[in-house]
Specification:
9 helices, single chain, about 200 residues, mainly alpha
Amino acid sequence: MTALAVTEAESMPIPPPEDDLASRFAAGDEGGMETVYRRWSPLVLSLARQSLGDGAEAEDVTQTVFLAAWRGRHGYRPGRGPLPAWLVGIARRKIADALSARTRRTDAAAAAARESHRPPEPSYAQEEVLNRVDVTRELRRLPEAQRRVLCLAFYGDLTQTQIAHVTGWPLGTVKSHARRGLLRLGRSLVEEATE
């Protein structure tokens, strides 16, 4: 070995033994967590990429795994198995969650697409047309002032103040015509429905 190689080997940090690292991690040592992440995140990322087939999603899952590991570090028991195996167990659960979420999103998008392309049910569409015909007929039966106020409000989408401005009538008069017209229209439609 050359002198340069010996110098480089001496200057490289020696990774801590796995047992020591696992103990530091479980004790909440942030430096231990950093080392755990550097050492085993490539393994978790590789598992996530293989299962998900999406690099960005795999990176998100990897972050989620290590966040969950850090939060749940008190549940890690070195006697039950090595730390990497524990991390892989968390990774499998998080990958399964990601796949389930993907399936739910796909199903929801497909359902929304089906709904947007489905024509309205004939009975609903027919009922809607009949309701418009009934309302139009009953509007024609109202006195001119009441009909004008209601048409400006519903079809013109005007406020009562705007209607007063358009018609030149006092605001109180517009409000009275609107109230009387709605009451009369409602009574007529109810009477017709009960016949």
